[in-house]
Amino acid sequence: MFGFKDVIGQEALKEKLRREVDEGHIPHAQLFCGPSGVGKLALALAYARYLCCTNRTDGEACGHCQSCKQWEQLMHPDVHFMFPIVSSEKKKKSICADYLTEWRELLINSPYFSYSQWLEAIDAENSQALIYAKESDEITKTLNLKPIQGDFKITIIWLPEKMNEPCANKMLKLLEEPPERTIFLLCSEEPERMLPTILSRAQRINLPRLTEIEIAEALQNKYGIEPRDSETLAHLANGSFVKALDQIHLNEDNDKYLELFISLMRLAYARRIREMKAWSEEVATLGREKQKELLTYCQRMIRESFMANFHQKQMSYMNLEEQNFTSRFAPFVNEGNAMGIMHELSEAQVHIEQNVNPRMVFFDLSLKMIVLLIRK
User: Fold this and answer.
1) Given CB 3.0 to 4.6 Å as the disulfide criterion, which of 27, 52, 332, 335 pairs with 67?
2) pTM summary value
3) In terms of domains, do 60 and 165 share one?
4) How far apart are CA 335 and CA 355, in angstroms?
5) Which domain does 276 fall in, by range?
C-alpha cells in the first residue's frame, strides 16, 4: 500500500521521482498539481514512502523494513500531514491531529478521493474546511525537532490552497527557511489560489489527466470490474479516477442532480414561476457543497447537450439516463445561448462560495434561464 505500483498511470513522473531519491537530488519542497482524481496525493505518498524505506528494491519500497510497516498504518513518526479541517469548539477539534483517525481511514481505503468526500468523512455539514494558522504553528514545533527514525522529516500538505492567509504567510517562512532535513510535499488542485511566493519556493510537478486505458485497467485490477463496464466508466470519468469511482459507488447524488437539472430546464422553458420558486427553495435546503456540486453538474450537462448537436459519440461523457434526456434537450442549447447559460451557472457558483442567500441565487438563476433558453 502507498507504493509507486499503487499509483495509477503517471509512469514518467514515477521514474523521475525514483531517480531523484536514488541519486540524492531531493528538493526541499515539491508541488504536485492537477485536477481531482489524477493521483497527486497517491504519488506524493509513494514518493514519501520510498524516501523513508531503508531497503529500496527495484524502484519500490521494500514493504518489510520498520519504516514500511509503519507506513501501512500511516504512523511513521517522521511523516506529518496537513489538510483542511473544520475547527469546532463543540467537538474540541482545532488542528489536523484531531482528525487523524478519519484521515487515515479514508487514505487506507483509497488515496483517490475528493474534497467533498473528505468533508463528508468528517461530518462537516455546511461548514467550509480550511487549514488554519494554528496548524502552521504546530508543524513548526514538530519540524524543529530532529528526525526520530529516518534521514528526513516529511510534511505532506493536501490542498494547500485551503490555507487561510495567516497560515499561508507562516508556511511561506517555513519554505523560505526550512528546518534542517525537512521536505514539503504539497498537493494542489488550484495552485493559482496560492500565494505566488509559495509557488516560487516549490518545484512544480504537473500531473496530466489519466488515459481511459489506465483508468479501465485500474478498475479491472483493483475492483474486479468487467472489461466492457470498465471501459464505459473510464470514458465517463474524463481522466479522473475519482469520477470513475463515483460512477460505481454513488449514483444516488448523480440521479438527484439530474432530476434537479431536468426540472430547472423544464420549468424555465414553460415559465412556471411559482414552481421555479419552489425549486429554488428545495435546492436551498442542500448543503453548500452539494449546491456547488449541483452547479458543476449543470455546467457539465449544458456542455454535453451542446456537444450532442454535433453527433460525435466518442465525445459524449454521459450515462444512459443523461443521454435519454439530452437527446430531446440538446436542440435548445445552441451557439446563441450556451456560453450565456454557462456564465450564469458559473456566477451562481461564485455567489454560493461567497455565502450569498441560496434561495436568492437559485431563484435568480432560474429566471435567467427563461430568457436564455429561448435564444437562437
Assistant:
1) 52
2) 0.74
3) yes
4) 32
5) 250-373
